[in-house]
Structure formats: structure tokens, C-alpha cells
Amino acid sequence: MSSSVLYDAPGPKARMRNRIYSVIGTAAIIGLAVVVVMRLADRGHFESEVWNTFNYSNVRETIRDGILTTLKVFALAGVLSLVLGVLLAVARASDHRPVRWLATGFIELFRAIPLLITIYALWVLFLTYKGDLGAIGENNGFWALVLGLAVYNGAVQAEVLRAGFNAVPRGQVEAAYALGLRKSQVMTMLLLPQAVRSMLPTIISQLVVTLKDTSLGYIITYSELLYAGRQLANTTLVNGQYIYVPVIMVVGTIYVAMCLALSALATWIEKRGRRTKTGIAVAAAAEPAEAPGVLDPAAVPAPAAAAGETGDAPLAAPAREAEGPKAAEGPKGPEGDTGEPRGDSDGPVGKSN
Amino acid sequence: MKFRKTAAAAAVVAALSLTATACGGEEGTAGDKPKDPTGGKNAPKLPTYDVKSGVKVDSAVLKKAQKAGKIVIGAKDDQPYLGFKDSAGKRSGFDIEIAKMVAADLGFKPDQIEFKTIDSGVRETTISKGDVDLYVGTYTINDERKKQVGFAGPYLVAGADLLVREDEKDITGPDSVKGKKVCSIVGSTPLQEIKKSKYGAETVELAKYSECVQQLINKEVDAVTTDDAILKGYAAQQPKALKVVGKPFTKEPYGIGMSKNDKALRDAVADAVEAHQKNGDYKKAYDATLGLSGSEFTEPPALERY
Amino acid sequence: MRIAVRTGAGAPCPTTAAHEDIPVNVLLDHLAEFREGFIGTVWLTVASSVLALLLGVVLAGFRVSPVPPLRFFGAAWVTLFRNTPLTLLFLTIWFAVPQVFDFGFDPWTKALIVLSVYTSSFVCEAVRSGINTVPLGQAEAARSIGMTFFQTLGSIVLPQAVRTVLPPLSSIFIALTKNSAIAGAFSVTELFGWQKVLSDQGFAIAWLFLWVALGYLVITFTISGLFRLLERSLEVAR
């Protein structure tokens, strides 16, 4: 049942050793946890007065409103960033030079500027034209945060999708043109669906980043979860201490839970997607999933794609660039792809079409 | 199957935190209850202000506010006894009182004031773009700021001072902080001052005063520096743990910020402050807020009109 | 450092215009602080990149290792730090960690630790997906000629993974550069804090942001340029 190719299935001795390591490791972690808890208790962070803070209805409401605000900002920013990402990625793969340049410029600019500055600049802009913007002007903080997140993450998602386009075997595109498909058809029926599927893990982890980055709203004093928590800690004094430690614990747990739920959703979608498709790679890939993170399914797609398999191959392809197929070929035939422009960052995808 | 478990757990935690925060709970304000130094008997009462009616000032900002039926005032929310918002959402402090008395003279009842928390870094932006009509929050008048906003005031002159632990003996003023760790807000004027090499202090810069105070309590830093008015508020919150050194080393005239070119409003606000200083409301408000921190009442500075 | 000087001096410098509101003057008048902030950002970015890279590779090794507790540790690390906002981690090391351990780190070290730990979880995932792209046959062949886990990983798999890992690493380090701005609120001298100091004195914030953004553009473009060079040189080496 060994799931990894990196080492042999453990024999009796190794199993024994692993068991001992496990015991030691577990003991160490538990020991550390005990020390942490005891030290914190020593300093009075587990006193009932301290935690009683969270029994007050207004404190609860503050936290609840924080969660809801964060989710609202994230939902809108997430959707907008995906839409923008698709638009930008398609524009960057365009045959028309000005369109391509515009998209490239947009992506490069907003990827390079710290999000804090983008959000702030948008906010100032919205404040300036408050009167003319209607709803946006009224809720300027909200929209500045949403659009700032959408612009930045849209630029990143566009790059992710572009890597996905690159991962689709060239033969497919050529075949599609040979069949008489138009450019738009190639894009919508061939490149986009495969790119989205192959890049899904990265797309989702970028969504997790989007969720976490809602906390940057502090720069415009927008009261999302973290800001609300900080405010609570800054103004609540219990037993002569500000309640930073409890607030960090509570808010941290909520953030991790929200992000994990999102990642789990992604994993679920990915697995579902894989199940419905017929793919030779799948059978082999299913096995390792049990062992956490050992040569995940992606190990399989690579050779499959190298062998010219269908586009399902790079399903769980590498994080960003999905150069899996090429890298896979590399070691076998060093001269194999010398003619290709490798770095995804150099040439626009459109070139190959 | 592993991920399902984490997924389920995560979803449960997320849902729990939502439901747990959704309903019920005790009423009131969380945290230590403020102690009354006078023992509760002669506790100074906050004054109430007579709201003027039919106020007519040739000011675009004010006309807009009158039409909307409310005035938006920017304030701080984390400075006890000065500009503070407790966990129940109630605002208190001297700056808040100043805002109320000015609003009253402009024709706004307390419930017609919409307070908005505005951090130091975005004051000029929010004021000059009209996001707030007035700003009252330890706002030092200086020339660079005057290029962007208008000021009425000063209504109070504060000065940079040092907050130390009650048992501190070494630090007696700005001249004795050599080699000590002094905490303040990123970019604040007292910080710029104490950074000068003649003081020889090691500085720590955080985003909020309360973060500095917590560092002081934790003995991670030896002193906190900022305007004495702010520090006295913290000392008053914990008189057994903290004290203010009491040797101000800068002058910080506090003003009420507003749109730059609205001279009519500037004059109206200055008039309002002056009137309340004369009729005694100003002193009453001081005694009931900053005065509680044990700092003496001093005669208000002369208003600067321009 | 040379870049810093060039940004300042290279900026259009209208000595004739003495008007105070000319945006360039804000920069020229506070060039020393700007340079200090710029160097601070570069230095913090470089130091935490190196540490994050080391940590990330080790963690990736953990995650594919034969020892279950190590795998668990790696997974827990990544889960925890990838799913927590950076600001919260900063608050933790400033307000919670000292309550437990009295290391007494200075602010810069705290920022270094937080940024490296946070970034290492991303590096770990990038390296791990890189490992996944190396054909199965390579590892199988290595093992069949008797290589140990460390040999297989160190001499066969990781070197081949490098090429695939470079592009995502470049984005990770660019993100790190921008994330270092958050350290400015926690007592570290860096580029974003320069703006804070001046805007508090009342300078128009739009221009301050323009200069700060340009500073970041210089750094991030340098990083992506360096990585492109690295990719190209690795290509030649093959």
C-alpha cells in the first residue's frame, strides 16, 4: 500500500522506528501545547473575567458583523476577480497587439503595486467623486476594498489562467483549427475549460488569499473581522490587560476555519470534476490521496501528458505554471524542446495560435 | 477521506462562531469598569448643551448637513477620557464633548450627530473630501496640514509627555530616556522628537496607543510617549499600574478640522467653542472627562482666528 | 542600494520650480528617509526570502518524507500559516508569543520571523508541486539503483523540480515584498512607513503613494527580472 515512489514501503524495523518517532513527536507537540497553555494561564489569559468578554451581546454582535462583512467583501471580490481574470487572460492571449499590450500592462502594474496602496488610492478616488457615484460613493470603504481586491486578484488569476492555457497541449489547438473552429470557439470550448480545470487548485488558493486579504481593509479603517477584533482588543481592558490574546485566538480560529472550508470546497469540486471524466490517469492517481501530500495525483498526469494524452492530464498540475508536461519531457530528451520559449513570462500565449 | 473531516470541522467551527455570536449574551459593557477617583459621591456630571435653532451660516458644508438633518463628525475611538468608544458602542471623552457643544451651537441635537472613527493617517483625506463635516480628535494644528484643511481652535494645548509604569524610578523626563525603549505611534510628532539623538532613546513604533500601553504593561518597553492628554487617559484607567511623568517637551495645539476654504464654518465653530468656554460648559466637560485622570484644569488657550 | 540612489536622482528634478506643492519636492526633501525605507524593504525582503526558501524546502521534504509525524507537522504548518492573515500573525508575535516565551526579539527579528514563516508555507507548496511534476520513472529508477530517500530527493528529484518551481517562487517573493509593507505598522523601517510619517505631517498623500508605488515597482521588477535571468541560465545549462 505504499503510496510514495520516493521511499520503500517500511519494513518491520522501519515501522517500529516510525512508531517511536510518532510517539516522540506527539509527546513533543503535546508538551509544547501544555507549556503554552500553562504560561498563558499564568499570565491570566484564561481567567473567566477575560473570556466573559465574549458573553456580552454587543461583543458578539461586533464579531458576527465582522464575519459577515468579511464574507460579503470576499464573495463580491472573489466573483469579480474571477470575471476580471478570465477577461484579462483572454485579452492577453488576443491576436490584436494593442489589446494584448493593454492587458499585459494592466496585469503587470497591479500585480506589482502593494494592495494596500491600490485600496487606498481607490478609496480616495471614490471619496473625491462621492456625489457622482451613487451607491459606490455612499459605501466608499466597502467598494474600495472590494474593487481593490478584485483588481489585484483578477490580475493574478489572469496569470494563473494563462499558465493553464500554456499547459494545454499544442496539438489540441492545432487540431481544433484544422477542424475549422473559430478563434472564439477554440478559446471558449477548448482552452478556457481545460485551463480552469487544470488550474483549479491554484485558483482556489488565490481565492483563499483574497479572503485573507480582506483584512487589509484596516488601511481605510473598514471594519471587517480583523479590524473589528483589533478594535475590541484595543478598547477592552480586563484585569489590567488588553485582551489581545483571547481576541487573537478567537479571530485566528475563525479565519483558519473559513479558509479551510473554502479549500475543502475546492478539493471537493476538484474530486468531483475528476470522477466524472474518463481519464486513464485517474485510477493510478486515486491511491496516494490517503497519505497526506505524498506525491499527489499530479505525479501521474505528467507522463500521461508527455505521451500525448488528452487534456485531462494536467489536472492537478503544479502550482503556478503548469509546465508539467515539458518539465517531464526534459530529462529524457535534453534536446526535446529547445526551440520552445520556455518561461511563461516571456511570450504571450497568442503567439502560438 | 481526510479532507472531509477537516472540511466538516472547519464548517462546523465557522457555523458555530456565527451562531454563537448571533444571539443572546449579557447586556452592558465588557471589561474593567472605570473607577471613579472621587468615590462616586462628587463625581462631576457631564453638562448638557442648549441646542440653538434657526442657525444660519453661509457655509456649504453646514447647509448640506442641515438638509440631511445630521452632522458627521470624525473622532478617535481608542483614547480613554478623550475620544473613546466602548464595546457597547457608546462614545465618551473630552473631544466628544467638544464635538457635542459645537454641534449644539450649529443646531444639531446629540442624536443628530453621526460620529465616525477616523484614524490619524486618513484625517486630511476624509476631511478634504467631505467624508466628515468636522473632525475632533487630538488633531494638532500645523502649517503643513493647513494647506489641506481648515482649523478652528486651539481648544486645548497638549504636550508630548511620557507614560511609565508606576514603579519606574529611572525615567523622570525626556532627558532620562537614554538607552530606554520608548514606544509611540508610527509617524507621530512626539516620536519624531524623541528619536532625536540628544535623547538617545531606542524607539518602538506601533499602530495604536493601546498596543504601546500593552507593551508597557508587558515590560517589553519602558515608556510610551505621546500627548499628555492621551497618556493621562491611560494612567487614569489603571492608576495602580501606570503614571505620567509630567514634563511635557513639545506643544500640541489641538484644533477642530474642517473643509479648508469654509471660513464661515470656521468662524462659527470658533464662536461656539468660545461661547462654551465663557459659560462654563468647557470646564464642566473637562472635569467630567480628562479631569478624572487627575490632571489639573488649566485655562483654555486663546483662539486663533484666520 | 545602488538602485535606491538611482530612483532618487533619476527622478525628474525641476530645480527651477520652487513651488512647494510640486510632488517631486516631497521626495527630494525627504530623500534620506525614502532611501532608508527603500533599503529597509529590500533588506527585509531579501532576508526573509532566504529564510523562507530554506524553511519551505525543508518543510516540503517533511511533507514527502517516510516519517508520518514529519508529514503531519509539515501539513499542519502549511494549513495553519497559509490560512491566517499576515496581520494576525504580526499581532500574535507581538502580543501573544512574548506571553509564553521571553525571547525578547527586536522588532526587525519579529518581522523577519513572521514573514519567513508565512512565506515558507507558500514556498513549501510550490516546491511540493514541483516535486510532483518530476516523472515517476525518475524516482523509481533512483530507488531501484539503491538510493536512499535523501539521495533520491536531493540528487534526483529536487534538481529537476527547480525549473518548474522558479516561476511560482518569483510570484511568491514578489508577494513577500509587498507583504513587508505590513511590517511598517510594527516598528520596522520600510518603504510604506515613509509615507505614513509624511502623511501624518500633512503632506498630500496621493504623491507620497506615487513615490512609494514606484519604489515597490523597482523592487518587484528587479525580482521578476532576476528570476527570468535565472530561468534562462538554467535552460542553457541543460
Compact description:
The complex is a heterotrimer of chains A (353), B (306) and C (238). With 306 residues, chain B is an alpha/beta fold. Chain B has ten helices and 13 strands.
Keywords:
heterotrimer; A: 353 residues; mainly alpha; MetI-like fold; 2 domains; two-stranded antiparallel ribbon; 14 helices; 2 strands; 67% helix; disordered C terminus; C: 238 residues; 10 helices; 80% helix; disordered N terminus
Structure explained in plain terms:
The complex is a heterotrimer of chains A (353), B (306) and C (238). Chain A has 353 residues and is mainly α. Chain A folds into two domains: 12-42; 57-276, MetI-like (MetI-like fold), CATH 1.10.3720.10. Chain A has 14 helices and two strands, in the order H-H-H-H-H-H-H-H-H-H-E-E-H-H-H-H. In chain A, a hairpin with a 2-residue loop joins strand 1 and strand 2 (241-242). The longest helix of chain A is centred in the first third of the chain and has 36 residues, at 57-92. Chain B folds into two domains: 60-158 and 253-293, Periplasmic binding protein-like II (D-Maltodextrin-Binding Protein, domain 2); 160-244, D-Maltodextrin-Binding Protein, domain 2, CATH 3.40.190. Helices cover 33% and strands 19% of the residues of chain B. In chain B, helix 3 packs across helix 9. Helix content of chain C is 80%, strand content 0%. Chain C is built from ten helices and no strands. Chain C is flat, with a radius of gyration of 22 Å. Chain C starts with a helix and ends with a helix. At the A-C interface, helix 1, helix 5, helix 7, helix 9 and helix 11 of A face helix 4, helix 5, helix 6, helix 7 and helix 8 of C.
